[in-house]
Amino acid sequence: METSKTYLAIVCLGIFAVMALSNAIVPVLPTFAGQSAWQGAIYAAYFFGAFISTLPGGILADRHGTAPVIRTGLLITVATGALLFFATAPIVVIILRGCEGIGAGLFVAAALSYINSRSDHTRLSGYYMAMLNLGLVLGLIIAGWFAVRFAEPVIGIGIFTLFAIVTLAGSAIIGNSPGSPVRKRDTVRVSAFVRENLWLWYSAIVLVGITGVVSSMYPKFSGEAADTLGFWIAGMSIATIITVLMVSRIPLPPVPVIRWSAIFMAGGVLLAYVSPVGFIVLGALAGVVMIAQMAFLARVPDHQGLLMGLFSTASYLGMAILPFVAGVIADTNGFLTAFVITAIMGGTVAVTTAWSGHQLPRPSE
Fold first, then answer.
1. For the segment 2-53, what is each residue's pLDDT rounded down to a tens digit?
2. 29, 173, 272, 339: which has the highest count of C-beta atoms within 10 A?
3. Which stretches within the chain are classed as H helix?
4. Is the separation of the CB atoms in 359 and 197 below 8 Å?
């Protein structure tokens, strides 16, 4: 009989593979496109694909269980990773990145549904987020290192596609997570969850999107080599790993934590303009924010597939829109303007969070 530890191991290895493959292209973006707007489009296409698939993935996980959705997400990840290994034209890369994002969105929604439906969800969310960010770190570092040493930008993509294949094979042993399936009519309540918790979804869009803005602009902004960029941007995820493992063991009030983190993230964006140390600040705060957001959502024991789908949708929407918009602003008005506008957006989250009436549990009635 399958144990919860086995399921958790597959979920954590899966998110590592998905995230590592998604980030393997970041240090070598300039080799696929020369302009910041095109680079932003390649970077954002992945998150747009995830944006459109996470909510359906969460609903499917509620109706049919998490295991088949997890396996489908991994299968799409493997297929698109293999095709990206041979792609060169920017428009083809954009399309494939979008498809890769669809697979990631399905996996993430189902995996988070499993994590947040457990009674020990806060501790498990720390493990999950740590593996997610470890994947981001190694995806950057390994891809950047191989790109410089062997003058071949796609080696990292190939390596993590192979790892995703191994993880896909391992996912065959998992079954559906425990819990009663959500009735079909319950999914109609998505509008209530969205309408009554707009401040929360806005915080996910902006605060997660901010990390994508800085990561996508830095290759051209700094002009550094791919391996150096990989280590700089990896510092963001390393900081996140540390904070999610710490914060997931400390009971903190989610709403004030989100509000104050938004204020400090605005400062972190401005710091990133003058120093790579800004990556460390933003990464640490992003970890705090995500644990707080998931803890707030866990107040509704049912509908976790739907809630995690909404949470992931909002997060990926931020990663899809903000980097592209920031890239356009950087091309037309300069990098300083792009960084300042991004910082201001972070500050608006503190305002909307302070004005919120909180909400949540009602739609499960």
1. 567 778 888 999 999 999 999 888 877 777 766 667 777 887 788 889 888 9
2. 272
3. 4-23, 29-32, 36-64, 66-84, 90-116, 121-150, 155-170, 190-196, 198-222, 226-247, 254-274, 277-297, 304-333, 335-355
4. yes
Task: Say what angle helices 277-297 and 121-150 make with each other, to 10 degrees.
Answer: 150
| pLDDT tens column, 199-234 | 899 999 999 999 988 887 877 777 777 667 767 777
* Separation CA 81–CA 68 (nearest Å): 20
Helix (H, G, I), strand (E, B) or coil at 288: helix
Distance CA 334, CA 3 (A): 53
How far is residue 155's CA from residue 185's CA, in Å, rounded to a whole number?
46
Determine the Cα–Cα distance for residues 193 and 253; give it in Å rounded to an integer. Answer: 20
Q: Is 176 left (phi over 0), alpha (psi -120 to 50) or beta?
A: beta
Count of positions (residues) in the chain: 365
* Ramachandran bin of 358, using left for φ above 0, alpha for ψ from -120 to 50, beta for the remaining angles: left
Going from the N-terminus, what domains does the chain have, and what CATH number goes with each?
Answer: 4-177+188-358 (1.20.1250.20)
Which position has the token pair 């950057």? 140
pTM value is 0.77
For residue 131, give both structure tokens: 């593996």
Nearest to 12 by CA among 20, 1, 23: 20
**CA–CA–CA angle 353, 355, 361 (5° rounding):** 70
Q: Angle 23-28-32 (CA atoms, 0-180°, nearest 5)?
A: 110
